Prior knowledge:
Layout: H1 2-23, H2 27-40, H3 42-60, E1 71-72, E2 83-84, H4 88-94, H5 99-117, H6 119-129, H7 134-145, H8 152-162, H9 169-176, H10 191-216, H11 220-228, H12 233-244, H13 246-258, H14 265-271, H15 277-280, H16 283-293, H17 297-326
Antiparallel strand pairs: 1-2
Amino acid sequence: xxxxxxxxxxxxxxxxxxxxxxxxxxxxxxxxxxxxxxxxxxxxxxxxxxxxxxxxxxxxxxxxxxxxxxxxxxxxxxxxxxxxxxxxxxxxxxxxxxxxxxxxxxxxxxxxxxxxxxxxxxxxxxxxxxxxxxxxxxxxxxxxxxxxxxxxxxxxxxxxxxxxxxxxxxxxxxxxxxxxxxxxxxxxxxxxxxxxxxxxxxxxxxxxxxxxxxxxxxxxxxxxxxxxxxxxxxxxxxxxxxxxxxxxxxxxxxxxxxxxxxxxxxxxxxxxxxxxxxxxxxxxxxxxxxxxxxxxxxxxxxxxxxxxxxxxxxxxxxxxxxxxxxxxxxx
Length: 331
């Protein structure tokens, strides 16, 4: 009986679908329509072509190199001449006595960046939005953008000159106050503040662009209504400005969390000293020393893969939380 019912149901479904199938244009006609649409929008596709090529060449194709993590890889022999070792490199990395120190240094440096370097552009954008003098506002914006375009090598060179124990301006000021000079770059306790403060200085202007753009889309009538109700500027920021750019902040936060395990290699590596390795050695510098200095490509790839997997988990977790509590998500 059940078989008869299923057959009848299938027959009904087939009868319902037959007119749709008959009226559906043939594949060649549909393909021509698609190609015609692509040709009509060819300039748009041409504009995004460099970005697509970049991601294919430098992001997707290199993913094939992940398999190096499971081989005792020899660069001159290739995969065919290298021994498959499975999870040996992962076990070696997890059993390394410095594993937790590397993980802690990486996470704590990124948490500080998330607390200060992420929030600083938001506060800066809110302050710029309160300026009424347009010429002064544009001047401040332009000046704040400039450090972003300095290379990391130049920024670190400026830090070395500024913090030098003999010729640095900071130590000259300390000596003028009757205090001893401090070798900031040699002291482990100063490494993280130097990294964070220089990061804020370099990225605060550029990072505020997104938030300034979001602020321009806020309906000005909301502010006028709040002024009529007697709301102060601070209350307007709390109850109108911040809720209006909340979605932008959440999206930028999710993207920042995705980089929680990826510290900027260049500045950390250039600021490293033998005396501050205890706080400056992070996963990115560890991978560099394994892969380039020691030519241990398999172990370096395994560490990099671990880094990427943790970053992916953090992105999905932050996306889940943002969707649950604010209904804003990237997925």
